[in-house]
Amino acid sequence: MFTRKAKEKKIKTPRFQTFRDAYAVTKQVKPWIGIALVAIFLVTLSIGIGIGISVDHPVYVGFIFTPLSFLMTLLFFTRVAGRAAYSSIEGQIGAGASVLMAIRKGWTTTPAVAVSRNQDMVHRSVGRAGIVLTGEGSPNTLRQLMQDEHKKTERFAPGVPVIEVIVGDGEGQISLRKLQKHLQKQPKKLTAHQMREVRARLKAVGGLSMPIPKGPMPTRAPKIR
């Protein structure tokens, strides 16, 4: 019995810590989040009690609406926390890499396989869609860096589709908030076996062509399963 309790504690602690960290990040960007969560819970519960009074069963209906109030509060928090997480890393060096590496299934990302003196970066992701080169930085100076990495990638993985993506809000660019979904929507062109072969081949290529610019990469980004 003691062992079982110890295991349950190990499982519950990270979940609570994840929620606490998400709340801390969200509160930095949205200071009103605490009041909003309490308000949503109370409003939802009040609606339930009001319905209960109208049918002459306020306690029963209120009891039913209690978990619903928690659910509505959690859904709202999840939505706001996701937006806050993106806002907290936008504009930071390596923000795109943080978002790409947060994809849990189907993609493997090697951050900063190419870096320029101007702190432009190219990240390489491998999935069933092929190879995706994601660039961060000034579009003018980033173009040559992307072209060089594209040629290098084709040399080491001939015949494999190579897709170029530039992070930004300009025309033809993909915003940081839509980056994960953009990769997930790419059509699958490789089998699982071919994808593993490409990953193994590129693993031998290595990553950086230059040192990573000073300053830590952001680590918090919304995750998708």
Instruction: State the separation between the terminal residues, measured CA to CA.
Output: 33 Å
Largest sheet: 4 strands, mixed
Number of domains: 2
Shape: elongated
Molecular structure report:
- With 225 residues, the chain is α+β, with helices and mostly antiparallel strands.
- The protein folds into two domains: 2-89, no CATH class; 95-203, no CATH class.
- Helix content is 56%, strand content 12%.
- It has seven helices and four strands, in the order ααααβββαβαα.
- It has helices spanning 2-29, 33-54, 58-89, 95-101, 139-156, 179-184, 192-203; strands at 108-115, 121-127, 130-136, 162-166.
- It has a four-stranded mixed β-sheet, sandwiched between helices.
- A hairpin with a 2-residue loop joins strand 2 and strand 3 (130-136).
- Helix 1 (2-29) packs across helix 3 (58-89).
- The longest helix has 32 residues, at 58-89.
- The protein is elongated.
